[in-house]
C-alpha cells in the first residue's frame, strides 16, 4: 500500500466554494458496495434508503471561531494562530504562521473583530512542536467571544456570509477546529422525516482536530502519525447500536468522524460507552465493527479520510466513483455534495 494509491486529479472548479442554497438540495451519490452500483439523487431523497429500526449516528460537535489573526508583539508582522484543541493543562494546541517567527516566548496581539468587543487579547507561545504546531496560552485559556473567525479550510477562498452554514443544525458542544461536514446536508425537517419513518437518531461527539488540516506525507500510509481527538459515546448510544444490530437493522454513521469514534468505542462487534482521546487510523484491511453504512462527502487526495472510505467500500471502487463524480460535475470537499455508501 502506497500513498500514491490514494491520489487522483481534481479540476479546481469542482471544489465547492459555497454551500448549497438549501442544505438538503445538494446532490447525493448512492453507492452499493455489494452490487458495485451507483445512483444519482439529491440529499433530500436519502430517507428512501432507510428502513424503520435503522439508526443514525451523528457527530454533534460545534466549530469554534478558532482562527486568530494578529500581529507579533516584537516585530509588528502579521501572524495567524489556528486553535486545534484545548489541552488538559488548560493550554491550547495550535498551528501557527509564520512558524519560524513564532517560537516559545513570542506573543501575538489579537484585536476584537466584532462590534462592541473592546481591548486586545494576547496569545503567548509556550512550546514548539513539529510542522508549525505550538502550545499556546490565551491568558484565561477560554477563547473569548469576538476575537476569532470561522476556520474554513484553505481551499475555500470565498467569503462565508453566514457562519451557521459551517455548523450542523444539531451542533451543541463547542470544540471542533473544522466542521463534521457530512452532517451539513441535514435539515431539521429531514431529520423529523426520518424519525417519523421509524429511524432512530443518536448523537456522539468527536471534536475535529489536526488531521483535517494535515496531509499524509509518508509514502507508506501505515507509517503516518494520526493525532488524537476527544470523543464521547454515551451508554445510551452504545446500547442503541447494539440493539439495532440485535434486531437485524443497520447503523448508519454520518461522517468519517462518527465512524472513527463508534469504531474506537467497539470491540468484537459490540459498542460500549467511551470518553477519551481517539487515535484510531482506519486503512484498507481494517475490519469494521459496528458501521453498516456511511454518509460522507468527497475527500481530498491522499487524505486519511479517503483512506477510511476506501477501507469501507474498496479502494478501486471508491476511486472509480470519484471519476464518475467528476464527469457528472459533483461538487467536492467541505461545501460539496455527499455520498451514501450502503
Could you characterize the architecture of this molecule?
The protein is an alpha+beta fold. The protein folds into two domains: 3-63 and 160-341, QueA-like (3-Layer(aba) Sandwich); 67-137, QueA-like (Thrombin, subunit H), CATH 2.40.10. Helices cover 15% and strands 28% of the residues. The chain contains five helices and 19 strands. It has helices at residues 188-196, 235-246, 256-264, 304-313, 315-327, and strands at residues 27-32, 37-42, 55-59, 62-63, 67-72, 78-86, 92-97, 107-111, 120-128, 133-137, 174-176, 200-206, 229-233, 251-254, 266-267, 270-271, 274-278, 293-297, 338-341. The protein has a nine-stranded mixed sheet with strand order 2-1-19-18-14-3-12-13-17. A six-stranded antiparallel barrel has the order 5-6-7-10-9-8. Helix 4 (304-313) crosses helix 5. The model has no long low-confidence stretch (mean pLDDT 95).
Please report the number of helical segments: 5
At the third CATH level, what is the topology name of the largest domain?
A: QueA-like
Order of helices and strands: EEEEEEEEEEEHEEHEHEEEEHHE
Question: Which structural class should the secondary elements be placed in?
Answer: alpha+beta
Mean pLDDT: 95
Into how many domains do the coordinates divide?
2
As a whole number of angstroms, the C-alpha radius of gyration is 20 Å
Amino acid at each position: 500500500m502506497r500513498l500514491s494509491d490514494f491520489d487522483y486529479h481534481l479540476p479546481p472548479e469542482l471544489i465547492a466554494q459555497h454551500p448549497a442554497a438549501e442544505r438538503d438540495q445538494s446532490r447525493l451519490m448512492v453507492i452499493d458496495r455489494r452490487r458495485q452500483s451507483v445512483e444519482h439523487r439529491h440529499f433530500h431523497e436519502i430517507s428512501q434508503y432507510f428502513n424503520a429500526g435503522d439508526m443514525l449516528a451523528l457527530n454533534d460537535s460545534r466549530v469554534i471561531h478558532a482562527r486568530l489573526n494578529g500581529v507579533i508583539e516584537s516585530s509588528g508582522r502579521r501572524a495567524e494562530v489556528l486553535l486545534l484543541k484545548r489541552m488538559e493543562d488548560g493550554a491550547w494546541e495550535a498551528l501557527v504562521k509564520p512558524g519560524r517567527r513564532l517560537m516559545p516566548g513570542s506573543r501575538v496581539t489579537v484585536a476584537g473583530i466584532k462590534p462592541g468587543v473592546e481591548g486586545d487579547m494576547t496569545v503567548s507561545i509556550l512550546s514548539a512542536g513539529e510542522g508549525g504546531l505550538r502550545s499556546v496560552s490565551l491568558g484565561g485559556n477560554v477563547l473569548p467571544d469576538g476575537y476569532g473567525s470561522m476556520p474554513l479550510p484553505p481551499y475555500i477562498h470565498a467569503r462565508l456570509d453566514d457562519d451557521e452554514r459551517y455548523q450542523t443544525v444539531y451542533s451543541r458542544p463547542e470544540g471542533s477546529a473544522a466542521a463534521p461536514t457530512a452532517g451539513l446536508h441535514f435539515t431539521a425537517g429531514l431529520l423529523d422525516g426520518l424519525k417519523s419513518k421509524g429511524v432512530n437518531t443518536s448523537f456522539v461527539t468527536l471534536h475535529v482536530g489536526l488531521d483535517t488540516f494535515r496531509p499524509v506525507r509518508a509514502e507508506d500510509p501505515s507509517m503516518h502519525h494520526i493525532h488524537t481527538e476527544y470523543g464521547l459515546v454515551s451508554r445510551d448510544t452504545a446500547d442503541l447500536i447494539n440493539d439495532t444490530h440485535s434486531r437485524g437493522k443497520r447503523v448508519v454513521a454520518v461522517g468519517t468522524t462518527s465512524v472513527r469514534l463508534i469504531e474506537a468505542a467497539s470491540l468484537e462487534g459490540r459498542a460500549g460507552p467511551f470518553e477519551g482521546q481517539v487515535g484510531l487510523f482506519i486503512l484498507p484491511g481494517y475490519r469494521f465493527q459496528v458501521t453498516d453504512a456511511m454518509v460522507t462527502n468527497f475527500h481530498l487526495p491522499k487524505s486519511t479520510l479517503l483512506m477510511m472510505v476506501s477501507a469501507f467500500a474498496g479502494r478501486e471502487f471508491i476511486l472509480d466513483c470519484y471519476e464518475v463524480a467528476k464527469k457528472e460535475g459533483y461538487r467536492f470537499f467541505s461545501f460539496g455534495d455527499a455520498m451514501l455508501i450502503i
